[in-house]
Amino acid sequence: MSTPRQDPLRDPRFFADPYPTYDRLREGCPVQRIPTGSGGHQAYLITGHPEAREAFTDPRLSKDTARFFAGRPSNRDLHPAISRNMLASDPPAHTRQRRLATPLFTTGRVRELRPYITRVVDGLMSAWRPGTEVDLVADLAVPLPVTVVCELLGVPESDRATLAGWSHDLFDATDNGRIDAASHRIGDYLTQLVDTARATPGDGPLHSLLRDCDEGGLDRDETVSLAALLLVAGHETTTHFIGNAVLALLRHPEAFDRLRRDPDLIPGALDELLRYDSPVSVATFRHSTEDLSICGVDIPAGFPVLIAPGAANRDPAAFPDPHRLDLDRDAGGHLSFGHGIHRCPGAPLARAEADIALRALLTRFPDIRLAVPAESLTWRRTRLTRGLTALPLTL
């Protein structure tokens, strides 16, 4: 197995369409050692579906970022609330935080939120008129999940757009300084929000979360870290989920017409839409804590391991004819929400938001079409998430 000479996930062609690159890598070997960045560092990239499922549950692949970078030189300056959140920890710290996050997104809790989500969608679409042009990303896919998660955290309406901008920089900025600065703005804001809520009695969602954190034994920093994770992870991927799904349907008119004629099919179509163009292209950082082998490939201790749900979801070994959008496919095994103990706890909320948004869009504006050629659409230049910078539509 030869190692690519350059990082294949930084090629401009990869951001526009990662699937040819994923196919080529997977056909060579579903577990490959690749260069990452331009500093001579290397990592193992997993592109096969069974191999990705195995890696997601392997306890020898740690998500404790601080442990990996301890003692290594670094010029990064991420806020601790971002660098040491639940996604960057292992049990038992991960277990304590996840136990508090999960109740926010149970099926029952999300069912209670559906009327609120519907009101938010109605408000965002209230000024839309047939024949006019909108940007689905800026006018719906960004503000919808931002509004919902900020409501859960008790963030004032006047601050929500600012937080969304900082979150955008955290994922989309191309220079580390801008990313680090965004992390501090988010961390400092949420620290103040948490401290203010603790000093002010109340019964809102944030006060309820703080009581749960206290009962669960989380300290102040861990509480702020959990709030940061809910804010950032709670809307960024949902934005791309909605945008990618709408674009996929517009590129497949038969599927679009089918859901438009029978919107009750939308919940069952969400798994295939998630599989077809995953909002998570490469999962967050993991590293090997000891020597291990996946698919016959030996991975030494101390190496970063990148699991690519975007690639695994297009693995023909798991999904025949994987590059075809097929609403009749059983796509429940997709890995867009991860797998194992780190599977996204907010998945039920993301599905509800996408369901409600798609229902409203397809039923109210049955004649929507792309306002620009599909080839001119631009994608965000990050390998972690896959999403459009804008999606201009004519209603």
Give structural notes.
The chain has 395 residues and is of the alpha+beta class. It is built from 18 helices and ten strands. The chain has helices at 12-16, 19-28, 49-57, 65-69, 80-83, 93-101, 107-125, 136-141, 143-153, 157-172, 176-199, 205-215, 220-233, 236-251, 253-261, 266-276, 309-312, 347-364, and strands at 31-36, 41-46, 61-62, 133-135, 286-288, 292-294, 297-299, 304-307, 369-370, 392-394. The longest helix is centred in the middle third of the chain and has 24 residues, at 176-199. The chain is globular, with a radius of gyration of 21 Å. The model has no long low-confidence stretch (mean pLDDT 89).
Features of this protein?
alpha+beta, 5-stranded mixed β-sheet, 3-stranded antiparallel β-sheet, 10 strands
Task: Write the H/E string, N to C.
Answer: HHEEHEHHHHEHHHHHHHHHEEEEHHEE
How do the strands line up in the largest sheet? 1-2-8-5-3
* β-strand amount: 5-15%
Q: Flag low-confidence runs.
A: none
Q: Quick one: overall form?
A: globular
Question: What's the number of helices?
Answer: 18
As a whole number of angstroms, the C-alpha radius of gyration is 21 Å
How far is the N terminus from the C terminus? 50 Å
What's the total number of strands?
Answer: 10
Structural class based on helices, strands and sheet pairing:
alpha+beta
Average of per-residue pLDDT values: 89
The major beta sheet can be summarized as: 5 strands, mixed
Instruction: Give helix % range.
Output: 40-55%
